[in-house]
Design goal:
- The structure is a single chain.
- By secondary structure, the chain is an alpha+beta fold.
- The protein has two domains: about 1-155; about 170-225.
- The protein is about 35% helix and about 30% strand.
- It has an eight-stranded antiparallel sheet.
- Helix 6 (about 170-180) packs across helix 8.
- The longest helix has 22 residues, at about 205-225.
- The chain is globular, with a radius of gyration of 20 Å.
- About 15% of the residues are buried.
- The model is unreliable at about 160-165 and about 230-240 (pLDDT under 50).
């Protein structure tokens, strides 16, 4: 699997239909935190939206949900968290894909995933995608034919957890662990409880806790195996 990070003009994404016109009249920045599902016709993603001005309350968003869906072309959304200090919403958002995005998914054969870092601002967008190298090459060629200019910031090859030697986490463990990290389960202080996280992942708190502990045990074991201790009888030099 290969990951590529691009820099694009946000205006090009607006023309493509990915961002609604005048969206940044109300918002300063959008950050993609996680792609839960990407299909030809729609996508389900966890987004962070930074608003210009005070946040609406959860009750206000609920009352205005129909207008918000119509205004931004959403199939649905769910508020995960409000962060008034930073003027951020965390939302699960389901959006219908515009024709240009459907064409890119077709070219990739459905084998492409938008991933972090992925930030959209009024002028500039940093977009990262993960896919097999051939699929990424086809997508970049199609972007050029569509008249979208871009600059490649970085590329890397990261082992997939499905590849031999790529890791021992299951795909489900990786998905849940990433969501727990994104939503602040490992932040200090913790920003989301295990019970709330369990509801967002469709599991019971005991089952989710057990899955996280198993994933954590795997990661700690791999870390310790990769970081052998110093020779016996040695100790770190005291500071100062």
């Amino acid at each position: 699997m290969r990951t590529v990070t691009l820099e694009l003009a946000t205006a090009d994404l607006t023309a493509l239909g990915v961002i609604p016109a005048r969206f940044f009249d109300r918002y300063e920045e959008v950050e993609l935190l996680e792609t839960l599902r990407l299909e030809r016709g729609s996508r389900l993603q966890l987004l962070r939206l930074r608003r210009r001005g005070a946040l609406r309350t959860a009750a206000e968003l609920e009352r205005e949900s129909r207008r918000i869906r119509r205004l931004y072309g959403l199939a649905g959304f769910e508020l995960v968290e409000r962060r008034p200090r930073t003027r951020d919403y965390l939302l699960f958002v389901r959006q219908r894909n515009p024709p240009g995005l459907r064409a890119l998914i077709d070219v990739a054969g459905g084998d492409i995933v938008p991933t972090a870092p992925f930030r959209l601002g009024p002028e500039r967008t940093i977009a990262t995608f993960r896919a097999e190298e051939r699929a990424l090459r086809r997508v970049l060629e199609r972007l050029g034919r569509m008249g979208l200019t871009y600059r490649v910031l970085r590329t890397s090859r990261r082992p997939s957890f499905d590849e031999p030697g790529g890791g021992e986490l299951t795909p489900r463990q990786r998905e849940v662990l990433a969501r727990a990290w994104t939503l602040g389960h490992y932040a200090i202080p913790r920003r989301i409880t295990l019970a709330r996280l369990a509801r967002l992942t469709g599991q019971s708190p005991p089952a989710l806790g057990k899955m996280l502990r198993r994933a954590e045990r795997t990661l700690v074991g791999r870390y310790l195996a990769a970081e052998p201790p110093g020779p016996p009888g040695t100790a770190a030099e005291p500071e100062g």
